[in-house]
Amino acid sequence: MLTWHDYTVDNAIEIFEQCRCSDALYWGIKEHSLPVEKMKELFAMMKSCSKTTILEVVAYTEQEGLAGASLAVECGCDILLGTKFYDSINRFCIEHNMKYMPFVGEIEGRPSVLSGNIDDLIDEAQSYIAKGVYGINLLGYRYTGDATALNRAFLQHIDAPVCLAGSINSYERLDEIKELQPWAFTIGSAFFEKKFGDTISEQINRVIDYML
DSSP labels for the chain? Predict the structure, then answer.
């Protein structure tokens, strides 16, 4: 993710240009703060490099979520990550053939923080899957409780793609993810804070190699 503290970095286009030949096949940004035309330019570049494109929308109201979904369609995204679940957003994504992976739980702030009972989070996710979402965007390491317990229980009980998103910033957490085997995980801020090396491209390939 070309994001830092849940906002798209201003030089996202320049950074992607430097990293377009990296091993990462999935690329994304947040809905803020690039101008729409710059977002469309960036996603077009990603598509030209055969990348799968993602827009993660940190929005909690139905109106904001629908606006984010509409923006994702306008930009030609493959996957909409985030938004609190609403039937209207789910229908919109289905109608536009875009994969939808909403948040679960009580979420607030930006960077976002997750709270809630683990069993309730699992039940909530299963109800969304029954309604046809592609998968779930879990803010596992932004959880106010025991993140390891949440991630483990969630991945054991959810029979759909789960993306672990947010605050993956150490090899210790990569080791946990390697054991849990989620469908995907995101790294954004940690790359810009050089948690895994120097350049973004170097860090991307280093993480991919580490996870093999």
Answer: --EETTEE-TTHHHHHHHHTTSS--EEEEESSSS-HHHHHHHHHHHHHTT-EEEEEE---SHHHHHHHHHHHHHTT-SEEEES---HHHHHHHHHTT-EEE---SEEETTTTEEES-HHHHHHHHHHHHHTT-S-EEE-GGGBSS-HHHHHHHHHHH--S-EEE-S---SHHHHHHHHHH--SEE--SHHHHTTTT-SSHHHHHHHHHHHH-
pTM of the model: 0.97
Q: What is the mean pLDDT of residues 12-30?
A: 96
Q: What is the pLDDT of residues 173-209, one digit of tens each?
A: 999 999 999 999 999 999 999 999 999 999 999 999 9
Residue 54 belongs to domain with CATH number: 3.20.20.70
Structural domain count of the chain = 1
